Amino acid sequence: MQRTLGKDGAQATARRLVGVGRFVANRRGAAAVEFAIVAPVFFMLLFSILEAGIYFFISSSVDAANAKASRLIRTGQTQDGAISRDAFFDEVCEVVSHFGDCDARLTVDVERYDNFADLAADIANPVCRDSDPSAGEPDPADRPYQSGGARDIVRVRICYLYDSFNPAIGFNLKKADGGAHKMISTSVFRNEPFGG
Predict the structure, then answer these.
(1) How many beta carbons lie within 10 A of that of residue 136, not counting itself?
(2) pLDDT tens digits, residue range 98-125?
(3) Which of 112, 107, 109 is closest to 74 using CA atoms?
(4) pLDDT per residue over 135-192, tens digit each?
(5) Rounded Cα–Cα distance for residues 159 and 178 (Å)
């Protein structure tokens, strides 16, 4: 038995097809839909670029703090107790304190070596504030401060912990247990022949 559409059924089918055609041809909400599709990727890229810029700015500030503090040692301004361990720490902190609390994020160690062979033999990792002395790790509060004398070899290492606001950036960067990025700056130099 064949079913036939009457005049009303044919008109209803035609109206439905025209309605579907209008829906497909309607472009009024297309920009909003396209933006909803593209916006998450755009904002992720935008914030990743911003985070990378902030990361490199803080990293260069840590390097600048190391260079500034190392110059004090290299030129003999810290020898003979002229600048204490705490004052030296404050010199470094002065540069990086804008990014967070130095007492919770910054470690500075200064070590003197008799020769470059001894320096090369010291392959210990830098100690950061996330170090756990109860687990046998070095105590971050008890870092060496040996500025040496004239013509001594000195290594200055700074570790600064930086929390990023974008968790997607820095998959390959060294992180502390709490998720902070470890920014490490090292200077090795021979002190100038200061003194008499």
Answers:
(1) 6
(2) 998 999 999 999 999 999 999 999 998 8
(3) 112
(4) 888 888 888 999 988 999 999 999 999 888 776 665 666 667 777 888 999 999 999 9
(5) 15
CB 126 within 8 A of CB 184: yes
Decide if 196 is inside a domain.
Answer: no
Q: What is the pTM of this model?
A: 0.76
Given the structure tokens 């998720």, which residue do they identify?
179
Identify the domain containing residue 88 by its residue range.
29-190
Read off the tokens for 158. 């700074």
- Flag whether 17 is in a domain: no
CA atoms 181, 84, 144, 123: torsion sign: positive
What residues are paired with 189 via a beta bridge?
A: 154
| Host H or E run for residue 106 | strand 106-113
Contacts of 125 (CB under 8 A, 6+ apart): none
Distance CA 55, CA 168 (A): 13
Based on the structure, what is the number of domains in the chain?
Answer: 1
